[in-house]
Design brief:
It is a single chain. The chain is α+β, with helices and mostly antiparallel strands. The protein has two domains: about 240 residues, Antithrombin, subunit I, domain 2 (Antithrombin, Chain I, domain 2, 2-Layer Sandwich); about 150 residues, Alpha-1-antitrypsin, domain 1, CATH 2.30.39.10. Strands 2, 6, 7, 8, 9, 10, 14, 15 and 16 form a nine-stranded mixed sheet that branches. Strands 1, 3, 4, 5, 11, 12 and 13 form a seven-stranded mixed sheet that branches. Strand 3, helix 5 and strand 4 form a beta-alpha-beta unit. The longest helix is centred in the first third of the chain and has 16 residues. The radius of gyration is 22 Å and the shape is elongated. The N terminus is likely disordered. Keywords: Protease inhibitor, Serine protease inhibitor. Belongs to the serpin family. It comes from Drosophila pseudoobscura pseudoobscura. One of its GO terms (cellular component) is extracellular space.
């Protein structure tokens, strides 16, 4: 068997067990994390595809999702759907190719590009950002997969196919949840329930990103204290607010009516970008404006300034049904009976389709960075007066993104605890 080229660096591929006999069914696509091309526009370059896909996904979610805290991983969603593209044919493959902005290359070249991209992005070290892409395909023992699909999944997506006895839903649920907990260092728990293994379901695709990173300049816990967070102009609540003064990229945008701050992570080109509206109730208008811009365009705004940063500790856990935004973005056939073509995954003319696509994320932000628990940050330095110092006050609902100029790992909004 060929060696997988992505996932955690220096990791080895796991032996693949092909599923058995014959029986049609549906596919359940499950995306889970730890933790944008619009119609009628000029096609972006291939390198811009992940950024534009992120914008389109965030926009589609904002059109329908209830108002509340939200986080999604465009990078993980695009990776998992690229794997589905490898098994799709005909018009189903065309929809995926177009919406994911995969270009005109053949499937093998696209798979190689995916593997090369993630082999550069995925790291696991004590310093810098730890980023780990994890994928596994669970197949009902009643449904045979094409062997060539399994080989591609292992080599180019660090994925493997395991057969599960779906008739024993409790045991299958424990097996998947336990595996994912171990792979994500217990940051993602209880992904599935026995209801996930219904008689109509045959395949689950579990895709996860583990992300851990320390701020390049950490907040001192000595400076964290209670402060007002305005949920709306008439309602506020007391939250733990972190504070530090340092040199950061900062912009005050009249176009967006918002302040923009970039907080870099240690030994990495990944950073967290926060966009805070000027008005306490300005988030809906800000999100409408961001829907017309890709995050790289927003990120170019800002110069290095000394900034007094005040922002809350926060954590978000989010479970998103990706079928609705995907259908809005142009991917519908793989979810539709009689239209789905997954002939590269199963036998030709098989009736399988994607019956469910979910992404569950967990993100925690504290004085150390995106860490499960804060460590001991550097001692707080005394403030020195500077009349040119900027103030960045994230004391109202805001948008955030964890990104570099190649892709968007997380994008979301924080409204209240």
């Amino acid at each position: 068997m060929r060696r997988s080229v992505i996932g955690e660096r220096r990791s080895k591929s796991v032996p693949l067990r092909a599923p058995d006999p014959n029986m049609p069914g549906e596919i359940v696509l499950l995306l889970c994390l730890i933790p944008m091309a619009a119609a009628g526009t000029t096609a972006p370059s291939l390198s811009a595809g992940p950024i534009v896909f992120a914008r389109n996904l965030f926009r589609a979610l904002n059109e329908d999702s209830p108002r509340g805290n939200m986080v999604v991983s465009p990078a993980a969603a695009r990776s998992a759907l690229t794997l589905v593209f490898m098994g799709a044919g005909g018009k189903s493959a065309n929809e995926l190719r177009s919406t994911l902005m995969l270009g005109a290359a053949g499937k093998k070249d696209i798979a190689k590009q995916h593997a090369e991209f993630w082999s550069r992005e995925c790291t696991c070290s004590e310093r810098g950002a730890a980023l780990r892409l994890i994928t596994r395909l669970y197949v009902s023992s009643d449904l045979p997969l094409r062997p060539d699909f399994n080989l591609k999944a292992v080599e180019f997506f660090n994925a493997q196919a395991d057969a599960l006895n779906y008739s024993d839903a409790d045991a299958s649920t424990r097996q998947v949840n336990r595996w994912l907990e171990l792979q994500t260092f217990y940051t993602v728990r209880n992904l599935l329930t026995p209801a996930s293994f219904s008689p109509e379901s045959s395949v689950l695709l579990v895709n996860s990103i583990y992300f851990r990173a320390k701020w390049a300049k950490r907040f001192s816990m000595d400076r964290t204290g209670a402060g007002d967070f305005w949920i709306n102009p008439a309602q506020r609540m007391e939250l733990l607010m972190m504070r530090q003064v340092g040199e950061f990229r900062f912009a005050d945008s009249k176009k967006l009516k918002a302040s923009i701050l970039h907080l870099p992570f240690e030994d990495s080109d990944i950073s967290m970008m926060l966009v805070v509206p000027h008005a306490v109730d300005g988030l809906p208008e800000l999100e409408q404006k961001l829907a017309l811009l890709d995050l790289n365009e927003v990120a170019t705004k800002g110069l290095l300034h000394e900034v007094d940063v005040v922002m809350p500790q926060f954590k978000i856990e989010c479970d998103i049904d990706l079928k609705v935004p995907m259908q809005k973005m142009g991917i519908s056939r793989i979810f539709s009976p009689g239209q789905a073509d997954l002939s590269g995954l199963f036998a030709k003319k098989s009736p399988q389709l994607i019956s469910e696509a979910r992404q569950k994320l967990y993100l925690q932000v504290n004085e150390s960075g995106c860490e499960t628990d804060p460590d001991t940050p550097a001692r707080a330095a005394a403030f020195v007066q500077n009349p040119d110092r900027k103030l960045f006050m994230a004391n109202r609902p805001f948008v955030f993104a964890i990104r570099n100029n190649r892709t968007v790992y997380f994008v979301g909004r924080f409204l209240k605890p």
